[in-house]
Amino acid sequence: MTAVRVPGQFPGAMRGGHPPAWPDDLAVPEQAEKRALLWCKVTDPDWRPTEEAVAAAEDVRVILPEGPGYDGLRAWLAERGVPYRVSRYWEEAEEIGTVNELGGRTDLVAVGPGGAVPAAGPWAVAARDAFAAQWDGLGELPEDDGDAYVPVGELVPAEWAALLPHPSFNPAQAAAVPVVREGTGHLVVVAPTGAGKTPIGMVAALDAHARGEKAAWLVPQRSLTDELDRELQLWRRRGLRVVRLTGEAAVDAGLIRAADVWVATTEKFEAICRAGSLRDALAEVGCLVVDEIHLLGDPVRGAVLEALLARVREDGAGARIVGLSATVANADEVAEWLGARLVRTAWRPTRLTWQLPVLLTADEADWAARAAVRTEAAVRIARGVGADGGSVLVFCGSKRRVRATALALAADRGAATVGVDADDAELVERLCTKAGVRLHYRDWPYKREAEQAFRTREADILVATSTVAAGVNLPARAVIVADTTIGLDRVEVSMVQQMFGRAGRIGAGEREGWAFLLADPGERAHWQARLAAGYTVRSRLGDHLPDHLLAEAVQERVSTVEEAERWWAGTLAAHQGHAGVEPLREAAAFLTTAGCLRAPAGEDRWETSPLGRLTSRFMVDAALADDLATAVREAPVPEDAFTAERSLAALLSTRLPVLEQAPFTDRARAALRRVLREAEQEQEQPQETDEPAWDEPKPVPGDLARAVLHLVADRPGLFRGRPGYVLGIPVDSMTGILEEAQRYLAWLGAQGPLGTVHPWAAVVAGDLAQRIRWRALGPGRGAGRLLWMCERMATAPLAPDLVPRMWRAARARGVDAPDWSGTTPPNDCALPPDRYRALLAERATGVRLDLREDDGEVRVAAPPGAVIRLWNGATTTLHSGDGEATTLLLPPDDPSDDSAGNSGAAVFTSGGDRLGTGWLGAYAAIRR
Question: How far apart are CA 465 and CA 868, in angstroms?
């Protein structure tokens, strides 16, 4: 084969003798190409194709940059009638075709930058399809599409106009709204990011309200509930009752039942379904608007959404599903699974062109060198866009990359960044702000200021993690995706498309957007193939099957293998051909072994155990939870509270991936390692020395998260009042760790009455869970009982406001436990008098425990309904309280148990209070 001249002169990918293997998760495209093609992307103004190739090709196209430097090339192409399109910011060089330089025919090949191996087969097809998408994206902009906008009053009742954000519907909305209104069947609306899908969802919700039904609007994450909630403020002012539900917000059952519209995260809505107490309210939902329904394929959120939609779909006459989706390759398959009508539009308010700039090659084993190449490319592209007065969004895969990239961009604008510590947030913020560069990620202390500065164009560059792509509407002229991984995981194509969708500032009068994905040379072909193929929704239910089988069992939807198989048959997983019988049996066997399901004697069916219901209600991962509980049961019985808390922290930080893999900056790592050293030295009391600690143990996964738990447990005052930093570490960087730990600790604590974990673990975990949740109050060891009482008096919906007030009032009066006398409710108690008196009876205040180890017995008096747990080492027994004093025998010694002789007793009331003997007494009240 004759070599083809490459339209550019810089290093590229696929060097060596063979292209990479085709990705397993992509369908192999049809490879026949009968046309004589010569499609070229050019970055060299001196490039010219051969006359023979141009003459032989029946379809010649060229994409090249704007600018006077390319006038000669454009004139040359025009003289020969060669079609070309230009882009203001063009970075790619590649040639795709079936003719060679001499005009001879070849198989379809794609030739990248100089020295790269020509790609054939599916890789060449992907390159051709990518070129076609880019060519279409660079088509002529219509002069004015104002005629395509339709006044809202022409498509919806006139009174709805005041409830919609704009006086007219854009072309995408105008295509979908009539379909929304003409029936009540399921519907999937597919449109590009930025096309304005929210008003379509609004019409669906208003349509349900007009029929006297409730509407629920599901969004994938909390930040989106914030944004949608702000948009629906107008509805509240017009009399509609809108309730916002997230993981942070407690459920007010009365408020939910009275609401017209719910705004909820998918996880919160699923939690309400699992709780069962609101099933009547759920039955009144006539329309379920699902924002970002394409996240059915998300590895984290997809399984929950699929299980929820399968349930709604199975109900038949239940809620109407209106799914709002970004562009996906298999939208028809998703719609077919739901039994939904598909409305698809390619319209978006701005023209979008995406590219995969070819980067310099760096050593694949040298992560820093590869990152430096991507940073250099991001700086170069941002410089070009900024020179034209454009704004730029740069997405990075980690917080540290955000800071490092922001400093590099600031340095390019003259900021003195040499020697600056990227972990010094205040200095980074100050230097970057002066250069017009701002930063944004979940726990960046200046993110709100960054959003405002970017919106008002006080800053024209924003460097962010994926939070901006998914949750904050901040468009820019150009988007640069500087990393193809988030942590250790490859970025999903759907996320890249969301990031790309931020390109194009329609509100600023701009009509074009440019997007760049910076992929290492070795992975560029993979990404070109993925972007050309588009995002394909694949079921994730099989990845979390035990959790969702348990959820169906808790809701009494499945109780046999046959019923489970019928449930599975209605899932997207089954629709896509995944076998379910054997995985279902395996999931059921695991849940039975874990104690979440049980089979009544002589019956071929399941029923959920109290542990199963608890596991589903807390929405903990069944496999992780079982592993954690097993580790707790196997742990030595501690001899004091300090050791007990250390033991739980160690188990959590090594069993929960969120904790084990938690990322931290170098500065945070250093601070947290000091915390660990100090904790280890507390009991050892080493001699002071100036000698370096050469034998200091090497860090292991989970260490840093363990240190965070130590801080909350041992130095709670550091967190009082919601400080921005603790020991120089952004507090928000600890939030994910603490929320995950709190959930699993609360799950362990709630098992006290069940007998499924050792009593010491339930008492200590319950106390720690409360202290973590209310850490802004600075509660110390033993505060759990008083916080529990404050929560119950406040009621769940009012707890965020009332618990801190009641806590401070109690502490000001010297109250350290909920054991006061009298039946008059305290100030701020939200309970009516009868419910308050009932709560008083649920306390452990009247419990009497007298441990007589020498006699091997316990004298105990516990209220009716309470559970009494006795132990001798690892051996435990369970008894029921009846309000009368009684003597119970401790379990006998187990010769194989090293902790035998370490005995005690604990009482767990029906309302959630607890008391224990011995060192567990440290958790009865706050110690002064």
Answer: 50
